[in-house]
Structures are given as structure tokens and as C-alpha cells.
Design a protein that fits this description.
This protein has three domains: about 80 residues, Arc Repressor Mutant, subunit A (Orthogonal Bundle), CATH 1.10.10.10; about 35 residues; about 140 residues, Glucose-6-phosphate isomerase like protein, domain 1 (Rossmann fold). The longest helix has 23 residues. It starts with 7 loop residues before the first helix and ends with a helix. Strands 2-1-3-4-5 form a five-stranded parallel beta sheet, sandwiched between helices. Helix 11 links the parallel strand 3 and strand 4. The chain is α/β, with parallel strands linked by helices. Keywords: DNA-binding, Transcription, Transcription regulation. It comes from Tritonibacter multivorans.
Length: about 270
């Protein structure tokens, strides 16, 4: 049995190590917990098992596979990470649903709370060292290629817009007309790939192909099981809290504007030297 992780980074690393050997139910647990780490601190075994679509007993076995004595042991680690900054928003959202009965104003409050939690989680999910490396790689690129389809498209288009406004050469790969422009990625360029589960095959293929050529690739993605969390790719992880079946992009867009402004600032600074 492996030693139980004591940090969020350690938890993610252990998930990645275990994933190839896990049977179906254990893999479901890993994928759900990897995508929703903030929920572990405030949810019951039954709630997490329902989210992963497994029996509570399967989730308990998964905790032990991760090296914990049980669910309470694993939850304690996550409460140590999240509790000082995060109140129990699950309870708050539940109360809003009960009082508002689905009115537009109640929906607004619910999405605001989900967005707030996503933003607070962002400081835990993004590795500051990887963020620094990403900015450095993008700032030195001749052209930045941005790809993100379906749910990720608003983020990709915003990044392209921001780069254009700052005079930074960027190309948006939007898949219009099913045209593949990956041949436009040249030596000296860099790629920003944005994809969330269920992952876009086109985005993953472009990211992996660029990484195989030794080009800088920055991925904005969700879980440690994401196919763009692979060697040669700088991963910036975002965990968006959902309400019902909908997930806003509050944290993802905040990360995108951070990346764009940081790259623009770095380029301006280098041009002055």
C-alpha cells in the first residue's frame, strides 16, 4: 500500500501513478475526485460516491488504495488544505435552492457562489512555478497558436483577442469548416491548448503533436487524468465548481487574463532592454 499523500500536489501525483493499474470502478473514483478535489472537504462518502457513480464501499476501497486508513483520513487532509479559505458552499447553494425555488435571482446567486468557490480553488490548483514557466515560454514565442473547442472556445477566443490588442502575434484555431491549420505551427512558435472533459480530440492531437516536435505547449485543463497532462506540456489545472449540469468559466477566464497580461508585460519589459 502506498503512503498517503499529505498535499494536493502529492494527491494528484499519486492519482497519476495509480491510474494505469486501476479497475473500472476505482478509475471512476479517481477521475471524479481528480476533477472535484474541493468537494472532498465538504461532502459525505455517499455524495462523492453518487458523483462518481459508484457504491460508497468502492469509494472507501479507493481511499485505502491511495494509502489512507479510510475516507475520514483522506477528508482530513483536504480539509486542512481547503477549510481555512473555503466555507461550506454546498450547504449555502442548497439553502438558496430551497428558498428561491429556481427563480432567476436565486439562479444568479447560485452561479455567483459557484464562481466564487472556483476562483478560490484556483490558487490551489495552479502551480505557480508552472505558471512562471508558461509565461516565459509564451513571451519568447514568435507566434502563439491558441486552440480550444466547444466549452473551451470562449476562453480561446478571449485569449486571441487579448493578444491581438497587445500587439502579440497569435492565431486562433477554431475548426471552422473542419479545416486543420496545425501545419501553420512552425519552429519558434508556441501553443496554448484548452480542453476539459470530455476532451476535444482535435485539441489534444494538436497539443501532443507540437510537444512531440519540441515546441512549447501550455495546457489549460481540468484533471490530472487529462490527456494533455503529459510530458513536454506545461499544465495549468482549473477546477470549476458546477451548479446542476452547468459549469461556468469563472476561474478559467481569470487564469486566461492572468496569462495574457503576464505575457504582454514580459514582452514589453524585454523590448525595453
Amino acid at each position: 500500500m502506498p503512503t498517503a499523500p499529505t498535499t494536493l500536489d502529492g494527491f494528484r501525483a499519486q492519482l497519476q501513478d495509480l491510474m494505469p493499474t486501476l479497475p473500472k470502478r476505482m478509475k471512476q473514483c479517481a477521475e471524479y475526485l481528480g476533477a472535484n478535489p474541493e468537494r472532498i472537504a465538504v461532502s459525505t462518502v455517499a455524495e462523492l460516491a453518487a458523483g462518481a457513480e459508484v457504491q460508497p464501499s468502492a469509494l472507501m476501497r479507493f481511499c485505502q488504495l491511495m494509502g489512507f486508513s479510510g475516507f475520514s483520513d483522506m477528508q482530513k487532509m483536504f480539509r486542512d488544505v481547503y477549510s481555512p479559505a473555503l466555507p461550506d458552499y454546498g450547504t449555502r447553494l442548497s439553502n438558496l435552492r430551497d428558498r428561491g425555488a429556481g427563480s432567476p435571482s436565486a439562479l444568479l446567486a447560485e452561479f455567483v457562489d459557484a464562481g466564487r468557490m472556483s476562483l478560490e480553488n484556483l490558487t490551489h490548483t495552479v502551480d505557480s512555478r508552472v505558471l512562471d514557466q508558461s509565461v516565459e515560454a509564451l513571451a519568447s514565442a514568435q507566434m502563439i497558436h491558441v486552440v480550444g473547442l466547444r466549452r473551451a472556445f470562449p476562453v480561446a477566443s478571449y485569449l486571441s483577442y487579448a493578444f491581438e490588442k497587445m500587439g502579440i502575434a497569435a492565431m486562433l484555431h477554431d475548426g471552422t469548416g473542419k479545416l486543420d491549420h496545425s501545419h501553420a505551427v512552425r519552429a519558434g512558435d508556441a501553443v496554448i491548448a484548452i480542453t476539459f472533459a470530455p476532451y476535444s480530440t482535435e485539441t489534444v492531437d494538436m497539443a501532443q503533436a507540437a510537444a512531440a516536435r519540441g515546441l512549447p505547449v501550455v495546457a489549460i485543463t481540468d484533471t490530472v487524468m487529462s490527456p494533455v497532462q503529459s510530458p513536454g506540456i506545461l499544465p495549468l489545472s482549473v477546477s470549476e465548481v458546477d451548479f446542476g449540469a452547468f459549469r461556468a468559466l469563472s476561474a478559467t477566464l481569470s487564469l486566461a487574463i492572468t496569462l495574457a497580461v503576464a505575457v504582454g508585460t514580459r514582452r514589453e519589459s524585454e523590448n525595453r532592454i
